[in-house]
Write a structure and sequence with these properties.
- 2 copies of one chain form a homodimer.
- In chain A, helix 6 crosses helix 8.
- Chain A contains 10 helices and no strands.
- By secondary structure, chain A is mainly α.
- The first copy, chain A, has 2 domains: about 50 residues, Arc Repressor Mutant, subunit A (Orthogonal Bundle); about 160 residues, Tetracycline Repressor, domain 2 (Orthogonal Bundle), CATH 1.10.357.10.
Chain lengths: ~210, ~210
């Protein structure tokens, strides 16, 4: 089993994000990734089996970091609507903060190759679970509609964030993704709510990120 | 310019759906598509420039048929909520009715290749416009929230339907996609509504398809 930690591992991951975002996954050469990371070509194979392994490891590392930090940030909150608001803001601000990573996550990772897809779907499950936990918690607290199927609601929440983010990455016109946090929150929060009324977006979240 | 109509053209499109769904776009051979369509290999090149052109034409044909029939069906309706309900039902029942087509649309078309992506996004615009028209109409009629940005709302509606459909295609467990029509409608309709109250799903829609 290859090593999965250390400075060089991290450097290769960061280099891969940049090279794959720039040339696309299929055209990205391992040699280019090595050069960008400042390591010898052979070094990559101490850490990764092949280019597919680089892509999947990149996703595992970045997604793991994101989900862990989101879980930590949400663990201090009690109100389900505030948790939802903060999750949407974290999702958008993370992507906006790293346009190369956004291009890799929203475009290059969407490969039809079954083995890549299988690995991706295993890795993203933790994030799906986090969203579903917020929904179940909101139902338990009486904030979110008890008639809702949490699994279907999770797909609607994730699908919405994902589509908004993909359109942002692909748009020829540059605009702020985080500017869409409030309108996306308002529609989804009203949809999830028990009585069709959701509290306004907690504005104190916005300037913090 | 190659011919874009006729029996053989249609037969090749149908064959391509089957072969691409079965082997994946990258492994799908033009020879296999020709054999499946019952035409000579060379005949394909009377209609299509290459395999990429087959994929894009397939999407154009299928998406064009879907959008046209949805427009026609919705044109008789007056209530924005009913239009939304019917759109969700049409979207899900079309995919459920042709599992091969669903696999091509939800998985194989999601190629990161820029030229494929550009063509796809041109073609899907008509469907995006249809969704956005329903939203604008609902706002004008006072049914949908006037605070909403129709473009953001469109991304939420499409993203939700798309994610629910992709999970259905990829699921190892077989279940009915159209069974999710009502829960998806309820959440989205409440989210779009002015007062957080959406009329119940018009059940007479369901047995018709």
């Amino acid at each position: 089993m290859a090593k999965r930690t250390g400075e060089k591992y991290q450097a290769i991951i960061e280099a891969a994000v940049k090279v794959i975002a720039g040339s696309g996954y299929h055209n990205a050469q391992v040699t280019r990734i090595a050069k960008e990371a400042g390591v010898a070509d052979g070094t990559i194979y101490l850490y990764f089996e092949n280019k597919e392994d680089v892509l999947i490891s990149l996703f595992r590392t970045k997604m793991g970091q994101f989900t862990a930090s989101a879980e930590k940030e949400l663990s201090n909150l009690e109100d389900p609507f505030e948790m939802l608001a903060r999750l949407i803001h974290l999702h958008f601000s993370r992507l906006q903060g790293d346009r190369n990573l956004a291009a890799v996550l929203q475009i290059e990772l969407r490969q039809s190759d079954p083995s890549i897809r299988k690995n991706i779907s295993q890795i993203i499950k933790e994030y799906y679970n986090l969203i579903e936990q917020i929904i179940k918690y909101g139902i338990d607290r009486g904030s979110f509609s008890p008639c809702m199927n949490p699994n279907v609601a999770r797909k609607i929440v994730f699908g919405s964030l994902d589509e908004v983010a993909t359109c942002w990455v692909l748009s020829a016109r540059r605009y702020s993704l985080t500017d869409l946090t409030v309108p996306v929150y308002e529609l989804i929060a009203r949809g999830l709510s028990t009585d069709g009324k959701a509290p306004p977006f907690p504005v104190e979240i916005l300037p913090l990120h």
